[in-house]
User: What shape does this take?
Amino acid sequence: MTADQTVGEAAWEGALTCTCGRPYILLKVDEAQTSKRRELQPLAVYVRCPVHRKATRILLPYSQLSEWIGAAADRLFRCNTCGAPAFPQKVGVKGHWTILLLECPTHGTKDNKRILWTPIYTAARAVQEIAKTETTLEEELFEEEDVFLPRVCPHCYRDNDADARYCAFCGQRIGN
Assistant: This one.
């Protein structure tokens, strides 16, 4: 991928991945510029591969924000050094910019500063919160103590209590 490449409708996901196959890390998202007719231009997104460490500028269409913000949010909250998930330690707002300092469990806050146009940060945080909520709901649905799967007898194929050692119908041994 070359620097300053404008991303088409279907190519944005590949644009956020390095040629080596590792996801880019988002470093900075510049504000959308407006033309004389007040139309939004593409956003300049500065990314870096955690392996090659070379920064690249990619232009992503603001009009398609809902299509690429999920992948961008995942890449935004990652350590610059190792690419592992990193967590916001400090968040500051200066004008229309959000300055974000992330903390990696391994590397701390070294080299993990992000400068984002505030609407992009807000959208990325919303995507992250939705993903966290979905994970929590999934965990609640499948908590081990709430799930009682019956034990099926290998001889008569009837359902028995989960802790049954012998079948209640045919009397054959079904458990350890």
The CA atoms of residues 26 and 72 lie 7 Å apart. The radius of gyration is 24 Å.
